[in-house]
Amino acid sequence: MKKNALLLLMLLMTVFVKAQTAPLIVGGDLDKFYPVVFKDINWINHIPTEIRLGRSSVHQDNNWKGSLMAKFVFHNTLWGNGARFTDVDIWQRYNKMTTQEVPFIAGYRDASGSSSSYDFIIWLRGNTTYYYDSNVTQNPEIYDGVKNPLPFQEVGGPVHSFKTEVDVNINSWGKTTEGTLYSLNGGLNYMNGSLGIGTLSTGEYRLAVNGKMRTHEIRVETANWPDYVFEKNYSLPSLGELEKYIAQNKRLPEIPSATEAEREGVDLGSMNKLLLKKIEELTLHLISKDKEITELKKLTSKVEDLENKMKLILGSGQK
Fold it and tell me: What is the pTM of this model?
């Protein structure tokens, strides 16, 4: 019984020790992000290296300084070997009551492209305490001008100093992957938020695409379809009015100018309605002109009949 209790205690102690994290104190200035070098030691073990960084309390170091949870799973290139990747989860925020970002991580880099150094750099905010653990023994080297002098010379590569801004590829509220994403589920795939393809600027739009798009069908929901053009009380602009407007504005009424279209793009739903409206107005003008032409043909036919009769009368009078 005592032996079993001792074994259980030893097991709990082993789990507890493995769960421990080590402190990582980055010096320097609070408004700068300094290169901290970790190692992809698991490269030789043929498995990815994992590094987890955290700050559970927003009051660590100072009141309301911010919290962080991050995980890096990566495999370095080492002179250009294949199967390299970096998957990152970063959650850095002020507190639960606000969505204000307080960035602690400004960038990361596989620094082994021209060497066998195993180096992987993470830029961390200065004057801040972090905690880390890994699935392999790590001895992070901090280049903050305090622990180690700046800059950090990448083996066979460029020189790295501190950053003052967060890299554009840093997602401070979720997952970033260098690979492709496949969803093989044939059911509903839901995304609550904006989606940018080839761009990080979605503005007020749920979907922003920087590049060409190909599809079999696009359905745009719209309202106030311009059937009202065919109502009897619709005021159809005369062709004279249109001629005057075109001469002054070099475009049709209601249609955006070339400058506006190039600057802001065009709304497919609104533009289709406007184009249909113009087609319907043009159709009414064509119908009206067709009636006028028909009446002219009738008049022309009557005139020709009268001319023929006059010729007959004049011809018989001469006899």
Answer: 0.76
